[in-house]
Amino acid sequence: MRARLQAFWARLRVLLRPPRTLKVTRTGRTYLVVTFGVGLGALNTGNNLLYLVLGMLLSMVVVSGVLSERCLRHLRIRRLGTESAFAGEPFAFRWALTRGQGHAFALTVAEANAPLTGEGRAGFLREGVEHVVRADLTAPHRGPMRLSGVRVTTTWPLGLFAKTRVFELEGTLLVYPRRGYACQLPGDSRQGLFGDTSTPRRNDGTGDVAGLRELGPTEDARRVHWRKSAAVGKLLKVEREREERRTYVLTVDGGLSGDALERRCEEVAAISHELLEAGNEVGLETPGEQLRPAGGPPQERRILRALAWVGFEELREEQKEQEAAA
Amino acid sequence: MSTPSRVRLRLRDLSAGAAFGAMAVSGQLPPWTLALFGLAWVCALLGWRPFAKRTSTALLLLGAAVMLGFSVARGVVDPVVASCSFAGLLTAHRLLSAPDARTDGQVLLTGLLMVAGGAALSGEMLFAVFLVAFCVFASLAMALAVVEATVPEGEPLPVRAVVRPLSVGLGFAVVAAAAFFLLFPRLSWNMAARRTSRVLGATTGLSDTVRLGGAGTLKSNPRVVLRAHLTPDPGLEQLGAYWLARSYDTFDGQEWTSIGTARRRRSQVTLRPGGERSIHQRIELLPAYGAQTLVALETPTRLGNAVKHTESGSQRTSLVQLGGGEVRIADNAPAYSYEATSLPPDEAASTQLTEAEQGQLLALPDRLDPRVAELASRVLAGEKDPLAAAQKLSSWLQREYAYTLELGGEVEDPLADFLFVRKEGHCEHFATALTIMLRTQGISARLASGFFGGERSNEDYILRAGDAHAWTHVLVPGRGFVTLDATPPANRSSQSMAALQFLTGLYEALESRWRSSVIEFSLQDQLEVAERLVRPPRDSGRSSARLPPARIWGVALLAGLLTYALWRVLSRRLSEPRPHSATRLVDTIEHLLREAGVRLREGEALEELTARLVREHHSLAEPLAPLTRRYLEARFGQRPLEPGEADRLLTPLRRYLEARRATASATGPRRMSS
């Protein structure tokens, strides 16, 4: 019985003090000024038609409030997140919105209390249908970003007021280092070919045949496939997969902090991207984590994740504990 | 431009048109403003916006502003009218400009200003229609603009989905506006009240003369011009009575006039002595009447207690008696009310006439066609009694001549033209022919004009403009003037179409209600409404045939709201997802296990608990295993629990727990004692 009463009291409090914020738009300000003027005119002249117009204007304000409130009710939000978020550049972020009862209109969705810029828009949310809202957000810096809730705003129905409701939804967005150019060379590779080898960016290795291509003007004539060339009537070059794979281990020193740390993380991210793109294997050593050398996009993702956590090791431990507890 | 955007623009333009209409119904805007706005509006609706690529068109507005300012300075145009006109021109300019979000906002804002201006200028019921139209169109346009701004590029705009919730909201807004209007106290500073105008204007226009010839367009006008409450009430649906305005005694061959001079102003005019059987009339001359001549049932004896009704209120006024028995209200006003008494139709009426007036009753036009007298003599065949002669001539005219409202242009001798050429005419021709033919035979007569008819409307009688009529007064020795009508009976009253009459009646009734309930609604009315709500009137006999009292409506509204709230609570509760019967079973099991001191670990399901208890060789495993199996079947195996099956399944577990509790209670005291 007591629990029921407490639940009832909690519901009543929510009903009486809904977590909404109301902001008057520019159009709304003009509307209110005109309403005030009409009110003054009605009081001044005693003209009943002006009272009628005033009543209409005021009731439209009330109706606007009621309809916008209905728009923000029965709303469920799921954070779908992003594939990858790099600091300083827009990334696609998604939320899934579901309306349990009735339709909703003109919704603007954004992350609340987070330094992310940008917002998603949903013009029409049909009842019972999950609608994915996409936004191009921009994170200012690298690292894990704690997300506490999603802010949904509507200016429905007349655009006079912007009503906002924040849906509590905990989460973490891991922002990778800013992508840029690598100014430094990666240093010596730990394994692989050295010296004057052909560039690994070309398909001119010694591996399996990858295909045939017409020989370019300055290309090495020793790679011409003579039999095929004779059959076709033009010079064809053999392309082979590279096998000159090298292994690098990049490091982020433990003594760095502030801008120096940020720059090093961005540099390592850029170098690793280039090396992995070139088909090499890359490992990473950070103060809190060591990644064994490996190749391909998954390794790049692992490196970026590790770089994102550099400097936030305590938070990572907390999150691991929370995940373990969950 | 996409189709939804076009729809939104159309709605925006329609809202601007409705707002301008709210001003235009006042009839006070200069005609060139109407023309310019109308042209711009039509162009905008057709999608032709010539100002879209021109930037210097604002100079046109500047010119219009200067012109209006100059007119105001000269006193030609009222400042409020000038402001409204400028708002209309500004809107027209914006309508023809490139449509973007800023322009849309400006159009809607000026539309709002125009509606407010219309409220200041007009008192017409049509204003309410335009106000609601503006609200509907502007709200839809704004809502579509709001949704359009958030719909991603390429996605369709949900026009139909927007309309439904918005129309419900608008319905509530109209009700709320009416409630505000009713309840908000009328605390007027009354510093700058404006007069209102009437859009349809007056129709009847009784003049000092009656000129023969021309088409009788008035007979087809269905507007209500007079409302009268008679005491005693005749109780007839169609009264069929003559309502006299004035009479004419001088005919010059073309038109009727009367001699006599105006007398001094009085609050009451007595025309002749009344009697005990006099009919008392409380008469309202409505704005459509358009004249100051008082009208009363034939034969009026006394007229007085006149009140003029203006926008600033009602005020008593005086009367002036003129020649021809005409009584006029001294001051000009849109509407009047007064009281009159008249003799019943069968009672003799004496009329005091001067010698000149008596002489005029036999006067003939100088150039009267001699065939008129010959014709009268031939028809009467020696009949000398005035009343009998008049009746004979009247019957003959009704029989031999046709009634028509479609007459040609002016003729030199309209009476001869009627009697010998066309042989058809309207009431004025018939009445003139009878009067003049009687005079040629030495019988005194005069032409009377006013209305014929009387249509029941609630407890009153109404007269329409089409009921305007002319007839003859024959002076009968010993009886005074006797009314005789030569017009065929079927053509005496209004000739308007029945449907048009119905529609006009409806409009007039609505307009009357609009004036009393909206335009003239005051603090006093609010107090009366409140008093009626708190203390209903005791004399319920009179109101029993009408609508229920306001408190009943209040109680009904309250009951409706309570029912709606109850329905909402019940529907919400019923629509809540009901827990699965298997879920209820597992809840009961968990409850029983908690009582037995067995708790599920974090995230542990029932089947995992059972497996754990089996592994641990716990005694609970035996009663719990079949329950768990059945729960899984019911929850996931599409074998729902039958009614009562859950209780049957739970019985072994309950028994086990009871036995365990009994054992614990039996061993507990022993342990304590030991």
Walk me through what this model shows.
- Chain A has three domains: 102 residues, Immunoglobulin-like (Sandwich), CATH 2.60.40.10; 49 residues, no CATH class; 79 residues, no CATH class.
- Chain A is 34% helix and 30% strand.
- Chain A has seven helices and 14 strands.
- In chain A, strands 1, 3, 5, 6, 8 and 9 form a six-stranded mixed sheet that branches.
- Chain A is elongated.
- Chain B folds into four domains: 181 residues; 287 residues, no CATH class; 39 residues; 93 residues, no CATH class.
- In chain B, strands 2, 3, 6, 7, 8, 9, 10, 13, 16, 17, 18 and 19 form a twelve-stranded antiparallel sheet that branches. A three-stranded antiparallel sheet of chain B has the order 1-5-4, with no helix packed on it. Chain B has a two-stranded antiparallel ribbon with strand order 11-12.
Count up the helices of chain A: 7
The CATH homologous superfamily of the largest domain in chain A is termed Immunoglobulins
Can you give the mean pLDDT of chain A? Answer: 85
Report the oligomer: heterodimer
Structural class of chain A: alpha+beta
Q: Approximately how much beta-strand content do the residues of chain A carry?
A: 25-35%
> Strand pairing plus helix content of chain B: what structural class?
alpha+beta
Q: Helicity range of the residues of chain B?
A: 40-55%
Going by CATH, the architecture of the largest domain in chain A would be: Sandwich
* Cα end-to-end separation of chain A: 31 Å
Low-confidence stretches of chain A: 194-201
Distance between the first and last residues' Cα of chain B: 95 Å
Integer count of domains of chain A:
3
CATH top level of the largest domain in chain A is Mainly Beta
Helix content of chain A: 25-40%
The helix/strand series of chain A, from N terminus to C terminus, equals HEHHEEEEEEEEEHEEHEEHH
How many runs of DSSP E, i.e. beta strands of chain A? 14
